[in-house]
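In this section we walk through a basic example: taking a raw amino acid sequence and producing a predicted 3D structure, encoded as discrete structure tokens. The instruction is simple. Fold the sequence below.
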Amino acid sequence: MKRKPLAGKTVLVTRPRDQAPEFSRQLRRLGARVLEFPTIEIVPPASWDSLDNAVARLDQYHWILFTSANGVDAFFKRLARAGKRPSILRGLRVAAIGPATAGRLRGRGQRVHVIPGEFRAEAVVEALVARIGAERLKGLRFLLPRAREARDVLPRNLRRLGARVDVVEAYRAAPPRDGAIRLRRLLEDEAVDAVTFTSSSTAKNFVRMLHGDRAQRLVQRATIAAIGPVTARTLRTLGLWVHIQPDRYTIPALARAIALYYSS
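The resulting token sequence is shown next.
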């Protein structure tokens, strides 16, 4: 029987607890021993007011943009709480940053009008320009429910083109409570071959929980895998070397890239 490419390798997954299982299953199918340690918890915003106010006046928007599945979940929870049906979005155009976010929207019966070829904020703007035209973006109103910690690239670039963008906090990506000691002990006690990061938040919290320089020491022998260029850039800024980055910024592509790295 052909040996699986990750046989004998221990891989640390830092995704949120409810998002880790599928990634872990893919890694295990490739032979890996998987340790799950979420470095972020998805928690409610400090206040729902801005999102609830946006939900109350959806008829004022032309587009709604989702940059994560978490944003989708938070938005539709507040939509239901306001007594509104998902069908109210039929008058809006919907954009998703990538296939996972689009899949979550389709699972809720929503049509997705724009998905960029590259799954990052800059590419969302490029895809919108290609579909609508730069001139026609002027004056259009966009709703962007997202994490408080998200980058400003998407709203900033749309505003430069003349669009009106309302950014509302839908959730926060917070470090797990009392997780620092457990994470340090895990890295000290286990022979971790690879550490995976699927967002800048997972990277920032990982380093924060290990008090900066200590993170470099604890993972100096490990392979670092980033889902895409934004996460990779964050890791480098934090002083961690990135060994693996897939061409497509998806979980299946990241699992394949890790397998390829250890197969070569």
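Looking at the output, two observations stand out. The first strand starts at residue 10 and ends at 13. The domain at 43-173 is CATH 3.40.50.10090 (Rossmann fold). In the next section we compare this with other chains.
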